[in-house]
Design brief:
The protein has 413 residues and is mainly alpha-helical. 62% of the residues lie in helices and 5% in strands. The longest helix has 38 residues, at 118-155. GO terms for molecular function: G protein-coupled peptide receptor activity; growth hormone-releasing hormone receptor activity; peptide hormone binding.
Amino acid sequence: CPASYCLPFPPPKVQATHPDCSIILYFQELEAACLEVIRSENQTPAHPRQQGCPTEWDGVSCWPAVPVGQSRAVACPDILHVFKKSKALIQRNCTELGWSLPSLPYYDACELEAIGSNNDTEAKASYFVTMKVLYTCGYSTSLAALFLAIGIFSCFRKLHCTRNSIHIHFFTSFILRGAAVFIKDAVLFSDESTDHCLMSTVNCKAAITFFQYSVLANFYWLLVEGLYLQTLLLLTFTSDKRYIWWYILIGWGVPMLTVCVWVVARLQYDNHGCWDDYTSLYWWVIKAPILLAIFVNFLIFLNVTRMLAQKIWSPDISKSYKQQYMRLTKSTLLLIPLFGVHYVVFALCPEHVGVDARLYIELVLGSYQGFLVALLYCFLNGEVQAEIRRNWGKWQSSMESNVFNLVTQDFTA
């Protein structure tokens, strides 16, 4: 567009995902609508007496077609926190030679909101770098702990049971979530020269799809852990092996179905950008099942707490059983963050509300959640500790026996 009336700055290149890219999307949508009008006009030949200035996109605004001698006026772009509300209008006349230059250039008519200083920009950049270092350390620690926990449950045969199988699936969902974060960062932010707002590659969309699936699976295996705990309390004498395939279907199947629906919807109706814009209406295809899992888990948590309280205070239960239920109560209280109760605080808030707190909880604290899960379910598990001590004792005895045999053989030789 002509330099005399274009904005004196390029579209901002941000180092983050949407909604920070909403400015570029705003102009993309305006441009697409304007180009559609231009395409329609080109397909419909105009009458000789109706010759004038055709519809034109100047990079900022769409100027509708008008006959020669008439004029059009447009207002400044309506973008919150970018332009001040200005009553000034930019006017152009339609002459025999075409559209005239605007009466006021955009940079004169449209006053920008006060932009932070370089110090503020550097502080924000430093803040996000610090956040990335923290959650990278968190996810790395969690991945190491989760792999070790899976190895422990898999190696010792006495630990093979439905409860620990569910724990392994739960650990795997945390591993996928951590890996998805690293993959997403590598695809979206490995090249600083890339405009992330306009990125729309297959690799980028695949990374976001895998990330959404891992997040959904993580929440639904969280739900399975809650369902399993409630089942143990309700159906004490029922074999839990019969439910394992239902748990697998809920934990892996429901997220897969949800993500497939989301992918089809994005491909058909909203296939722009990298699919990481949380302002999109189709984000609710992902968000609604997550909210459902959170609130169902919260209800399960309340119900489990109620049942444990009834059993503890019941006069018909022996002292040993009460001590067992007390241990369950303590474990349940420790599992509050695992049930996702703290996510309820942000569940129904708009995405732009409490961004700093949301980032800290979901990225920094959330990155250590896998480590906490491995700690509670495996490393602090009395059954696991006993099995490790037993096998360690057997290994020591075996080593002492081998050493004794070698010494005996040397002596007799």
